[in-house]
Design goal:
This protein is mainly alpha-helical. Helices cover 58% and strands 6% of the residues.
Length: 202
């Protein structure tokens, strides 16, 4: 078993399984194995011999290593479908920007929202590169079940780092606009007050 065998759903389940309370490491490892193979814990504790269980647990060592980075392409094949990702974060639409901001607001839920985050930034295309009419939730479900983790790590790392830069750039721009607005408001207020006079009657 390798990272290339693991889809987003399995990865999300794996993250939850790692956080589960277990009495010992063997029990946790069996729980992880059950999660990644869609088998029950009872199957590994009651139905297979110890030597086979040991082989399967050794196969989990890939988890300790990060997946190898893949080159990022705008057009990718995921399962049997093709998608085009917008690799230019400066050209995201206002709707995409709002969706992304909402999805990364709670840092604890980034893993849970990974497939939706990626679905917001892509569109399904046909063999000729023409956009298909799909909705984010359908793309997200398909990506969750079919995108493999090396591609996920590469794309999500790329998008999250660029998104952070976009947020900083947007915040810097808004801060600059706010300073200009405050200055202009102050100038207008000062001008209005000088025209009116101080309003003091003796």
């Amino acid at each position: 078993m390798e990272w290339k065998d693991i889809n987003i759903k399995q990865y999300q389940d794996l993250c939850k399984e790692i956080d589960e309370d277990y009495t010992d490491d063997l029990e946790r490892s069996i729980g992880i194995l059950a999660t990644l193979t869609d088998k029950s814990i009872a199957y590994y504790t009651d139905e297979i011999p110890l030597n086979k269980l040991k082989e399967k647990l050794i196969a989990l060592t890939f988890i300790k290593e990060k997946p190898k980075q893949q080159k990022i392409h705008s057009k990718v094949r995921i399962g049997k479908k093709r998608f085009r990702f917008n690799l230019n974060m400066r050209s995201v639409s206002a709707g995409q920007y709002i969706d992304l901001t909402e999805l990364v607001k709670d840092k604890e839920k980034i893993n849970d929202n990974l497939h939706t985050f990626l679905a917001v930034l892509c569109e399904e295309i046909n063999w000729y590169g023409k956009k298909k009419d799909t909705i984010v939730s359908d793309r997200a479900k398909y990506i969750q079940e079919n995108m493999r983790m090396p591609m996920v790590f590469s794309l999500s790392g790329f998008f999250l780092s660029n998104y952070q830069r976009l947020i900083k750039g947007t915040n810097d721009f808004l801060e600059l606009q706010m300073k200009k607005l405050t200055k202009k408001t102050q100038e207008a207020t000062d001008l209005a007050l000088s025209n009116i006079g101080d309003g003091i009657i003796l």
